[in-house]
Amino acid sequence: MKIKVTNKFLYPFPKVFCIAGIVYLSVIFFTILAPAIKHNLMMQNNLSQITRNWNISDLPWGNYFQYLDISDKGFAEECPNTSMNTLTSEMVEDTFQALYSHDTSYIMETFNLARCADGSNGYFDLHYRFLAQANGQLLLANNSWQSAVDRMLFAQTDYWPIRKKNKLIFATLCTELIQKQQWQGALTVCVANEQTSSNFFSAIALGRTLSQLGQYEQALVLFSVAKERNTTAYEPYYWSGVIYNDLGLLDEAVFNLEKAFSFNTDSCDVLFELGLAYFFQGNQEAFNFTLENLNTLPKCKATGTAQQLVKAIGEIGN
Fold it and tell me: Is the Cα torsion angle 271, 301, 298, 212 positive or negative in sign?
């Protein structure tokens, strides 16, 4: 006697489990993963909007003198008669060393040879990058920020040795210009720094510069990027709180400044801004606690931060 087995009795539980699993995964995707993916894409889009005007990686290669402050008349009008008609890797290395020592004359000589060489194996383009980089560094010395950065960003495109050199140059100069409060120059250089380094410090520097120039929305984007790059740093929360205080968005200011305080309980600057936010929010108890902290912490007491806070409140009130 044959026993007939039907789906009705054999498969009810697997179907139930499969349906439940699909529902469970769908809930996870739409409640957790999808918002996170959307947030990440929005952050990348916002950041690209800020830096897009400085992206010159798609420059045409046809005119090799487009981004140089030199004329092609400075090179031989006719290629010299020479048996050395191929540019070697050793010459590329020599040129790179000349770039480090600012010896632009040697770079130009080898560039001319590259222009005339047959089968130079791509070294011609590389030497053009070296010339652009050297020219950019000279323009930096003359405070021609935008022209210099254009050349240096072009020179480093898809070439790590120059990019590595520029990481240090842009980071150092960005910091110096912020310290000197030369905000327009800082904007150009700090954008290049963010494009080249893309680290926590470059995001903070560019965010501060944008904030000083009144570009608050873009500054907040950079501080959000910094929060993601270092999840336990107080600086991006502090600078975000400063912006929200200036805009009168006190709830947002308190949230960010309390977060900053949780990461750095000894910062007089954080306590100062937090005191402002509490006072104008009408939270007298929290304000008094902050004032007490300022009068207790030795370095805040030594600098008179509590008195500065009271004075600032009086000036804002008037």
Answer: positive
Range of the domain at 141: 61-158
Comparing CA positions, the residue from 105, 103, 43, 53 lying closest to residue 74 is: 105
- Residue 138 pLDDT: 75
Contact 271, 261 (CB under 8 A): yes
- On whether residue 154 sits in a domain, the answer given is yes
Q: E-strand spans in the chain? A: none
Burial class (CB in 10 A: 0-12, 13-18, 19+), 146: middle
Provide DSSP, 159-216. Answer: -HHHHHHHHHHHHHHHHHHHHTT-HHHHHHHHHHHHHHH-SHHHHHHHHHHHHHTT-H
Give Cβ neighbours of residue 81 (< 8 Å, ≥ 6 apart).
none
The whole-angstrom separation of Cα 27 and Cα 35 is: 12
Q: Give the helix, strand, coil percentages of the chain, each rounded to 5.
A: 75, 0, 25
CB 110, CB 127: distance < 8 Å:
yes
Segments in the chain below pLDDT 70: 1-128, 317-318
Look at residue 109 and tell me if it is in a domain: yes
CA 226, CA 218: separation in Å to the nearest integer?
13
Give the pLDDT confidence of 222-243 residue by residue, as tens digits: 999 999 999 999 999 999 999 9
Q: From CA 267, how far away is CA 305, in angstroms rounded?
A: 11
DSSP symbol at 248: T
Question: Of how many residues is the chain composed?
Answer: 318
- Residue 82, in any domain of the structure: yes
Q: What is the C-alpha to C-alpha distance for residues 284 and 302, in angstroms, rounded to an integer?
A: 24
CA distance 165 to 286: 48
Q: Confirm whether pTM is higher than 0.85.
A: no
Q: What is the domain count for the chain?
A: 1
C-alpha distances out from residue 77 to 111, 126, 228, Å: 13, 21, 54
CA distances from 68 to 93, 130, 131 (A): 21, 11, 7
Tell me how far apart the alpha carbons of residues 74 and 78 are, in angstroms, rounded to a whole number. Answer: 12
